[in-house]
Design brief:
Elements: H1 11-40, H2 46-70, H3 75-105, H4 107-112, H5 115-135, H6 137-145
Helix pairs in contact: 1-3, 1-5, 2-3
């Protein structure tokens, strides 16, 4: 039983954040492997799969636009958010899928070389930083604007 008085370590917060960080870590690891696969030319046929990635990102864009717009956001804000979802979805889906394809067709280059461990480590760090940035978005905005913290 978790008995910490720290809100970040209580069971409810861990139950919420743990799966989210786990899913983000898996997705980022697949995307990182996808970058390696594309850069090495180890994912033949990517041009044939590109239309599927574009279609999926278009669907994500429209769904995000409908969700954000119905939530009461102003028009420009809804369009910006939906565009970010569409572009981010395209990047993550295409790189992630190519990463899975590369890992399945070249397991020696990914697993045996220990490349997977380094990419998984980078994904865990990126997921943790992303979680922190979302929880501290005011501080992040201030840092981006160059304000004193």
């Amino acid at each position: 039983m978790v008995t910490s008085t720290n809100r970040l370590l209580d069971r409810g917060t861990l139950a919420q954040a743990g799966p989210l960080i786990g899913v983000c870590t898996v997705a980022l690891t697949a995307a990182f492997v996808g970058v390696i696969g594309l850069a090495s030319g180890g994912t033949p046929g990517v041009v044939g799969r590109l239309p599927v990635y574009v279609l999926a990102s278009a669907v994500g864009f429209v769904l995000a636009l409908l969700a954000v717009d119905s939530g009461g956001a102003n028009g420009m804000s809804a369009l910006r958010r939906a565009s970010a979802v569409g572009v981010g979805g395209f990047v993550m889906l295409s790189l992630g899928a190519e990463g899975v394809i590369y890992a399945a067709t070249h397991p020696d280059a990914v697993v045996v070389s220990h490349l997977f461990v380094y990419l998984l480590s980078a994904a865990i760090i990126a997921s943790g930083l992303g979680y922190w940035a979302v929880r501290n978005r005011r501080l992040v905005r201030a840092l981006v604007r160059g304000s004193r913290v």
